[in-house]
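Notes from hallway chat w/ T.B., transcribed later so I don't forget. T.B. wanted the structure written out for a chain they're using in a teaching module, and asked if we could keep both sequence and structure tokens in one place. Agreed to drop them here.
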Amino acid sequence: MRHPPPGILSPRRGRLALAGLLAMTLAAIPATARTPLVFAAFAEDDEQLRHVLVLTESVRTFAGADRDAPIWVYVPPELASSRPDLVRDLDDLGARVHPSTAPPAALVYPLAAKVFAAARAESAAAGRVEILAWLDEDTVVLQEPREFHLPRRVSLGYRPVMHNRSGTLYAGPVDEFWRRVYERLSVPESAIFPMVTPADSQTIRAYFNAGLLVVRPERGTLRRWAAALPRLYRDTAIVRMCRQDRVRALFLHQAALVGAVLGRLERAGLRELSPRYNVPLFFRELYGARREFDSVASVVTLRYDVYFRDPAPDWRERLKGPPETVTWLAARLGRR
């Protein structure tokens, strides 16, 4: 192997050095020169775009000191052109709609399109925004999200996956699928740590919920996510396992997120947000859980998934919390 003369970097080391210099340059921009917080989300269809409108209203109503923060909405180009009414409604609330596309090969896998939208949002935020809160469109903000303002040395705020559908128990063996994911995404064993799922209280290997990611854009976490996903769906062994197991395919985007985080960020740069964030409304009814999620009394951010496609007739009576909050949710999400 040829080595460069002293003082000259190899192409690979040169790229790494340039990337490091760029990160340091962006980090050196005074925080006062950047937007403190931006909320961002992706909507793939009409239903999700209506959800984003509720998310936007909730930020403007309940987010306290962050209520006027910018909101960026990413959509497939054809969705924006087909629903100009919803785009106008979002614009009236100060949300800005941006086009986002994904590689055709990625669209075979559910939820993959939002990975590439997240990378676009992070690219747009780098150097301009202190914190980017990437949220699934079924999120409702019910209180000021103070934990989104991460401590200086923290690069990612996260919540664990709701329950263990496709992860592995921390005390058990790593299965064939996860061994391949760790190998393809260069995740060292030393980077893997335990976390407890909120809905079924299982201690699993680190597995991050892709519906709430609070990042420092200059660290490139969401862009690495978009680079990691194709490395998985182009791998013949992983494709085979996804064909054999629909759940693997459904959550392939989340497996890619594990590699994007654990393959680069140190544990000290990660912070698990409190259980008041990403609370899954009536999750027990939807998917099963060891406890009820039927209160919004102390919730900061709520998730409702597809619950309101066919809600229980008495859901409003069963939901605990401030009456004005329940009324607000009912007016926007429940059947009238």
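Follow-up for T.B.: The mean pLDDT is 92. Might be a good example for the class.
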